[in-house]
Structure formats: C-alpha cells, structure tokens
Amino acid sequence: MTDVQRNSYGSILNPPQFVQTLLMDAERKGCWETGIAADKKNRGSSINIAVYGFNELEQLAVVQVRECQFHPRRFNRVRKDYYLLGRIESGEVFAHAVDSPCRSKLAMSNPQYCVDYVLSKIWQCHIDDIKDIIRQGDVALIPIISIPATATPVEDAVVIRETHKVTGDVFKDTSGVLYCRRGAKITHTKGEHATIKARSGFYRIQPGYRASVWGFSTPTPD
C-alpha cells in the first residue's frame, strides 16, 4: 500500500483510485452534491469530502461529508456526516451512515483499521470478530458462544427492516435481540443480495447500526 499522507485534520491526501470512483458514483447516485452555491450577497453553502480510511482488498472507504453554510455577517456553520462506502453484489455503490471515527486515535492512525473500527460499530462486535461475520446487506450473523437461556424459539419467519427474511431455528431474547443456529437462512425479499446461511455454531442476528445524518447528505437504502 502506498504511504498514506494526511493533512493536519487527519484527512488522507492520496487515497487510491477506487476511493475516488466510489465518491463519484455516490454523488451520481444522489447521496450528496459537492461544490459551492452562493448568491450575489455571498450567502450560501459548500460541500466537500474528506477520506479517513480505506480497505483496498474489500473496496471499502470511510469518508466525511462536510457542509459549510456561510454568510458575510455571521459565523460559518459547519456540519459533518460520515459514511462507509462500498458496493453491493450488483456493483451499485452504497453509502452507509456511520459515527465519526475521529474519536479513535487508532482508527485515525491506519486506513484499514479505520474501516475495521467503523465495521465493528455497525455490527456491534469486537474488531477481531469481523472476519467471521456472515453478512447480507445491512444485516449480519455475528458468531457467539451460545444462545442466552432467556431466548425462546420463534415459530414464524422473521422479517428485518422489511427486506431480510429469516427462516430456520430462530430465537428471540426478552430484550428483543434475535439469535439463530446452524441452518438458519436470510433471504433478501428484493433479491438484491444473495441468500446467506448460518454455518456451525450459534449467531446473533444483527441489523447494522445506522448513524443519523444532518439532511444535506442522503444514505442509500439497503
């Protein structure tokens, strides 16, 4: 990997080409619109992008979308949204809203660790467990040692976020958390993701955490 160069704010100055392509595709998809818009009285706003992390093997990137609203007689108002960018099976870009990784010194020290840090927050798991996750869009099976004794079997199929249908041996805890064991399947009702199947052992069924955004940028749907 090329030596990473950062500015004083931690933004990567030389991201690889695949990150630039992801950014262009996300903008074409309507996730945001970079540039400056102002009137004759110098009132307006600008949107620009900063890259904080990337994983070239997985073709993932962590970016900041920054909006600055300016007025000649007021202080500038700055707002920031953060996204994990990647591609679904069809090649379409996705933009998943995440919390800022800037609070983690380790995340900001290494581009790939930044991606792993964000993924661990999305899936509510330890970074070391990411490699063992079975994912379908923004729902995943997270390996666990055992299903809690407070979880009871669910008789009917479960649909998560209106598009992920879970069948097989599924359990629900008193807290509402879903679990499953070997053989359980998740099918995407829109057919945008391949069906996934639980392998040996037990899993927590985890909808991906979605951070809130300010409204000047738009996450892609699942």
State the gist of this model:
14% of the residues lie in helices and 38% in strands. The chain has 222 residues and is mainly beta.
Describe the 3D structure.
This protein is mostly beta strands. It folds into two domains: 17-128, no CATH class; 134-207, no CATH class. The protein has helices at residues 17-28, 105-109, 111-123, and strands at residues 35-38, 44-55, 60-71, 74-87, 93-98, 134-136, 139-144, 152-153, 158-160, 164-167, 170-172, 178-181, 185-188, 196-197, 202-207. The strands form three sheets. Strands 6-7-15-12-11-8 form a six-stranded antiparallel sheet, with no helix packed on it. The protein has a five-stranded antiparallel sheet with strand order 1-2-3-4-5. The relative contact order is 0.15. The mean pLDDT is 95.
Mean pLDDT: 95
Order of strands, widest sheet: 6-7-15-12-11-8
Compute the number of structural domains: 2
Q: Give a quick account of the main beta sheet: strands, pairing sense, barrel closure.
A: 6 strands, antiparallel
Spatial shape: elongated
Q: Please tally the β strands and state the result.
A: 15
Features:
222 residues, 2 domains, 3 helices, mainly beta, six-stranded antiparallel β-sheet
Architecture blueprint of SSEs:
Layout: H1 17-28, E1 35-38, E2 44-55, E3 60-71, E4 74-87, E5 93-98, H2 105-109, H3 111-123, E6 134-136, E7 139-144, E8 152-153, E9 158-160, E10 164-167, E11 170-172, E12 178-181, E13 185-188, E14 196-197, E15 202-207
Antiparallel strand pairs: 1-2, 2-3, 3-4, 4-5, 6-7, 7-15, 8-11, 9-10, 10-13, 11-12, 12-15, 13-14
